[in-house]
Design brief:
The strands form two sheets. The protein has a three-stranded antiparallel sheet with strand order 1-5-2. Strands 3-4 form a two-stranded antiparallel ribbon. The radius of gyration is 17 Å and the shape is elongated. The chain has a single domain, classed as Alpha-Beta Complex (Ribosomal Protein L22, Chain A), CATH 3.90.470.10. Helix 2 runs antiparallel to helix 3 (44-62). The protein contains three helices and five strands; from the N terminus they run βαααββββ. Helices cover 35% and strands 36% of the residues. Residues 90-110 are annotated as: Disordered. Keywords: Ribonucleoprotein, Ribosomal protein, RNA-binding, rRNA-binding.
């Protein structure tokens, strides 16, 4: 059975989050947590919280322990872009795009 959790509107660009997500895909939950704890990237902290949230969902709703679970799939999709402007020389402006991410994780039993 598949167990899912979602994180929406994360204020980190999807390109940066995918680097972290690719490193835990297919790993056991324990191994994924161990890897995420020691990663330097800023996006490792929200992904770690998402993995722990998915494990808590399975524990509370289905009585499945974390030792039996592994990361079946983790997808990082593009969210809405916040558009801002930066004042420039001689009264002009240049655009700034602040990207957001939607992350979905699916856990499965071994």
């Amino acid at each position: 059975m598949d167990y899912k959790a979602h994180l929406r509107y994360l204020r980190i660009a999807p390109r940066k989050v995918r680097l972290v997500a690719d490193s835990i895909r297919g790993k056991s939950v324990r191994e994924a947590e161990r890897l995420l704890k020691f990663m330097v990237q800023k996006s490792a902290v929200p992904v770690l919280k998402l993995v722990r949230s998915a494990v808590a969902n399975t524990k509370n709703n289905f009585n499945v322990g974390p030792e039996k679970l592994f990361v079946k799939s983790i997808t990082v999709d593009k969210g809405p872009v916040l558009k801002r402007i930066m004042p420039r020389a001689r009264g002009s402006a240049s655009p700034i795009h602040k990207h957001t991410s939607h992350i979905s994780i699916t856990l499965e039993e071994k």
